[in-house]
Write a structure and sequence with these properties.
By secondary structure, the chain is an alpha/beta fold. Helix content is 34%, strand content 15%. Strand 5, helix 9 and strand 6 form a beta-alpha-beta unit. The chain binds zinc ion (2 copies).
């Protein structure tokens, strides 16, 4: 596979979507090695629960998590939603560059993920799934499940209510819209679960998903995401 990728790249040279230089192994990853390894893991100050990155180094838990304990135990994410990482997520999500799910899932494998009984991707409503043809989060989860040897649980969480695209609404509206939008199926009683998302923006989605899973009997939910956007004023 690796050699085939190199060969194809030699025959049909393609450009890295970030710097425009030649990509090294287009079949595996359209990015050039330099841009790909330039994607940094976020290691700055962050809330110990929701992971919001603007807390000062002296604060361990952010104000919002102190006020109301979130339904998830922790949010882990690889980097800030910016630069090459943003470009990669965008290409996977909206341009259907599916081969990116493998290298992206390897990033997640580097995170300190706790032992769990199952991996659950944040679901798309079936209408949205139809439009986009595939759920990028499910595709990443599939690879992660193989990497970590934790079972993938695809039909446990479903989005039963259609909600407007996240970017069109404010944080508060988003929470209201998402209320009751998900439903859990099957037996998850007492399970420690990993909930996978691509980008955490307001955390409204993962909050609602985790709430649904806990209500259905899960013991704990740890959120694992590729990126987190830098917060403006909402959390
Ligand atoms: Zn590049
Ligand atoms: Zn927090």
């Amino acid at each position: 596979m690796k050699y085939l990728g190199k060969l194809l790249n030699l025959l049909f040279p393609s450009k890295c979507p970030v710097c425009g230089n030649k990509s090294d192994d287009h079949l595996y990853n359209p990015f050039c090695t330099k841009c790909w390894i330039g994607i940094e893991k976020y290691s700055g100050p962050a809330c110990s629960i929701c992971g919001i990155p603007t807390v000062s180094p002296l604060t361990i838990t952010c104000e919002s998590c102190l006020k109301a304990k979130p339904p998830f135990s922790k949010v882990l994410y690889y980097g800030i939603y910016d630069g090459a990482l943003k470009e990669a997520i965008h290409l996977l999500k909206f341009n259907g560059v599916k081969r990116l799910s493998k290298p992206l899932s390897l990033m997640l494998s580097e995170l300190p993920i706790p032992r769990a009984d199952g991996i659950i991707p944040v679901p798309l409503h079936h209408k949205r799934l139809h439009q986009r043809e595939f759920n990028q989060t499910a595709s990443i989860s599939q690879h992660l499940s193989k990497n970590l040897k934790i079972p993938l649980m695809l039909n446990v969480l479903k989005k039963t209510k259609e909600t407007p695209p996240q970017t069109d609404v404010t944080g508060k509206e988003r929470l209201k819209n998402l209320k009751g939008a998900f439903r859990a199926y099957g037996e998850i009683n007492g399970m420690d679960l990993l909930l996978i998302d691509d980008v955490i923006t307001s955390s409204a989605t993962v909050r609602e998903c985790a709430k649904t899973l806990i209500k259905a009997g899960a013991k704990s939910v740890t959120v694992v995401a590729l990126a987190r956007s830098m917060p403006k004023q909402n959390t």
